[in-house]
Amino acid sequence: MSFMQINDLRVHYPIRGGFFNTVIDNVHAVDGINLEFEKGKAYGLVGESGCGKSTTGKSIIGLEKITSGNIIYEGEDVTNKRRNPNSTFNRDIQMIFQDANSSLNPRKRVQDIIAEPIRNFLKLTPDEEKRKINELLAIVGMNEDAKVKYPHEFSGGQKQRIGIARAIACNPKLIIADEPVSALDLSVQAQVLNFMKDIQEEFGLSYLFISHDLGVVKHMCEHISIMYKGRFVESGNREDIYTNPQHIYTKRLLSAIPDVNPIGRDVRKRDRIKVEADYVIEHKNYYDPNGRVFDLKKLTDTHFVAMSAHEKGGM
Ligand SMILES: Nc1ncnc2c1ncn2[C@@H]1O[C@H](COP(=O)(O)OP(=O)(O)OP(=O)(O)O)[C@@H](O)[C@H]1O
């Protein structure tokens, strides 16, 4: 049973121009996506730069204005209530960002950064608040000494842990993690990801994990949506997406993952090209009205959009 549903979400940014600076067009950053969140599950959002991943995350939490669509949280339409700082929705849905530097106030000590949501939502006594902050620091594997320090005194991985401590302070249901590890060294990435998995299990958290890295998403998420130009071209569970991708764009993303095992690399590459080619031949009639079989290399963005629209029954 899902606790939150995102229905036909669209976020369009106006493009202004001309002498009177009027709206001449719109960027369809998010263009009709649907998502459902169940307790304790991790959902991945993958796609190349500019496809609309961050806009999706930010619009869910209320940092971007929604053009149309709605967000239903625990049975209630919260689309126009997301910005209310004291709402249950604001407490239960938290976000962590790629750049921990800019999401932690450099002028505040760690204890005040972590205390922010606690003061807003939990109304604890000063002693209870201290205990809570110590507890949270212990959960994210940090020493109590960290409390009186400022963000610049920590490494990237530690800053991300502080951001996570703040995010989990009020027992959220969902954490939207926008590229949380891509600014970190590989070894630190693994530590933070594993730690995020641990707290997911411990607290029954759900994640919306935004990344351009299919390897990271495979490690973290059981359900994955592949995004292209503001739409989902394919959604499914991890096994389906990685072993039996249906959409050519997914196949292309997967084939772009560097293959670390040299044995059989050429065979795998040939197999991938063959599945792409089969797909193209099978679907040639709707993206090529003349019935021509396209050369894979000549496929353009327009074809991908046409294919995804067709798969949704739109063409
Ligand atoms: N405030 C804005 N005004 C106008 N266009 C915007 C705005 N924010 C984002 N866009 C555009 O919306 C599209 C989606 O941007 P978004 O940041 O969501 O992509 P993304 O998939 O998260 O990319 P990346 O992985 O590079 O962060 C892009 O074309 C971007 O240029």
From TrEMBL:
Listed InterPro entries: AAA+_ATPase, ABC_transp_ATP-bind, ABC_transporter-like_ATP-bd, ABC_transporter-like_CS, Oligopep_ABC_C, P-loop_NTPase
Keywords for this protein: ATP-binding, Nucleotide-binding, Transport
GO molecular function: ATP binding; ATP hydrolysis activity
Domain of life: Bacteria
PROSITE patterns on file: ABC_TRANSPORTER_1 (PS00211), ABC_TRANSPORTER_2 (PS50893)
Domain ABC transporter: 4-254
A single BP term in Gene Ontology: peptide transport
UniProt-listed Pfam families: ABC_tran, oligo_HPY
Homology family: Belongs to the ABC transporter superfamily.
Annotated protein name in UniProt: ABC transporter ATP-binding protein
Organism lineage: Bacteria, Bacillati, Bacillota, Bacilli, Bacillales
